[in-house]
């Protein structure tokens, strides 16, 4: 039987892989419906998975695509049926025909949902230069 930490690491890896492959259905299936999102690139928090899915669809209509994503320095903090996953992410995106490379830090909060770890909050911030 896998430890809870290993289960969370697998859930995080599945989320990152789905994002990296630009597979919206698999990516959003990694989140609970009531998940919230705080991104440094978006002016206000997104208060549900549906709100993020709608924004994602708008982005894709404007030429957005994920070209790749690498996770490093992952750490898990278990808090009962909640787990906090922190990592650094190197992401390649295409936005409006232009390719961007981003270096960011991310926290994903997972909650145990019927035996499955689902992300219930994601906070993405720019990696500081210092």
What name does the CATH topology carry? Answer: Nuclear Transport Factor 2, Chain: A
Summing up helix and strand content along with how strands pair, one would put the structural category as: alpha+beta
Strand residues, percent: over 45%
Major sheet: arrangement of strands: 1-5-4-3-2
Could you spell the SSE succession in H and E letters?
HHEHEEEE
What's the architecture, going by CATH? Roll
What is the CATH C level class, in words?
A: Alpha Beta
Low-confidence stretches: none
Count of the domains? 1
Q: What are the key terms here?
A:
NTF2-like_dom_sf; five-stranded mixed sheet; SnoaL-like; alpha+beta; 130 residues; Nuclear Transport Factor 2, Chain: A; 5 strands; 50% strand
Task: Describe the SSE topology.
Layout: H1 4-20, H2 24-28, E1 31-39, H3 49-61, E2 65-79, E3 82-95, E4 98-113, E5 116-126
Parallel strand pairs: 1-5
Antiparallel strand pairs: 2-3, 3-4, 4-5
Domain SnoaL-like: 8-126
InterPro entries: NTF2-like_dom_sf (IPR032710), SnoaL-like (IPR037401)
Protein name: SnoaL-like domain-containing protein
